[in-house]
Amino acid sequence: MMTVAKRKARKKLAISHATRPQQLVCASSLLAWYDRNKRKLPWRAENGVKPDPYSVWLSEIMLQQTNVKTVAPYYAKFLARWPRVTDLAEDRLEEVLKLWAGLGYYARARNLHACARTILERHAGIFPDTEAELRTLPGIGAYTAAAVAAIAFDRKATPVDGNIERVIARLFAVEEPLPGVKPKIQALAATLTPERRAGDFAQAMMDIGSTICTPKRPACALCPWSEPCIARKRGDQETFPRKVPKAEGRLRRGAAFVVLRADGALLARTRPDKGLLAKMTEVPTTQWSHEFEEGTAESSAPLTAKWRRLPGVVTHIFTHFPLELAVYRASVPNSTRAPKGTRWIAGGEIEGEAFPNVMRKVIAHARQ
């Protein structure tokens, strides 16, 4: 008499045998498409060239929530300044933040530097080659660990980013909404990853999501997975992936004070070591709050001067809330001392400072 355990094992084996041919077809057809259509990217190794783990890791960190066009010049500057991970590790965080300025999501830069130092101190400057070991490094989560393991070391790993989520959701017509369905999409994607060429397969998934299976008007006629795609057959591919409506954060407001010396120097300070925009450079501001009252703003000015409230406001959208800043400007003599906790930045050095995008908007608004 067959036990329950044996029946379950036989059923599992039957499912595995039933799906394996389909998986192989999906993998082989996508890899064939990739061999013909793969994108030329600065961090992508040429055919027959072994990928550089440092280049793969650097690009993957930069590409988090940022598009290829924006990342490319930053990637080139980083690689020119720090050609090896050990070079990056041995430089100061302040220099990394300066070169990162404008790319956004600045925790990535701090984690990048911390990770480089960990690789130098704990791994003698050599990248670990497994997902499990990569996950122990600062700033490397499940996606990045899988991407580096697959692309740099051809380990059988399955990175799933937003583009790949969309591809899988359409391919299998996954009805459950994001973000709760992420584990299911990850599991479905893993069933497609082949034993060989896992790195190429991962990059093929990224490419098809970026160029073919786009959020709007996907080019299904050009897709190598057009035939097995359930959503395409139903004709509702643009409705996938399903998503829970995102709650909007409450508006915060504040005031920013731009002080320019007669010689063009700008008054600035460094933000705290932890929290939003940690260790980045900023012009002095009030607290950013829901209850901000502009009538009291000048009482928070960094020094006594003839302040002018500039027309309009500077707006910026952070991940969890939108921000509006009123901008006040003042001109002071060269003899003016920087108040405690602030410093003067020479006019020619402003561009190279670690100002986040919101501060660059404030400075540009003040200079108009």
Q: Give the biggest beta sheet.
A: 4 strands, mixed
CATH topology heading of the largest domain = Endonuclease III, domain 1
Beta-strand content bin: 5-15%
Number of separate helices:
13
Order of helices and strands: HHHHHHHHHHHHEEEEEEEH
Shape: globular
In terms of quaternary structure, the protein is single chain
Task: List the keywords.
three-stranded antiparallel sheet, globular, Nucleoside Triphosphate Pyrophosphohydrolase, 13 helices, Endonuclease III, domain 1, 2 domains, 368 residues, alpha+beta
Could you explain how this protein is built, in words?
This protein has 13 helices and 7 strands. Strands 1, 4, 5 and 6 form a 4-stranded mixed beta sheet that branches. The chain is α+β, with helices and mostly antiparallel strands and 368 residues long. It has helices at 4-37, 53-62, 68-81, 85-90, 93-100, 107-123, 131-134, 142-153, 162-171, 182-192, 198-211, 230-234, 357-367, and strands spanning 252-261, 266-270, 281-282, 308-309, 314-317, 322-332, 343-345. It is globular and about 70 Å long. Helix 1 packs across helix 11 (198-211).
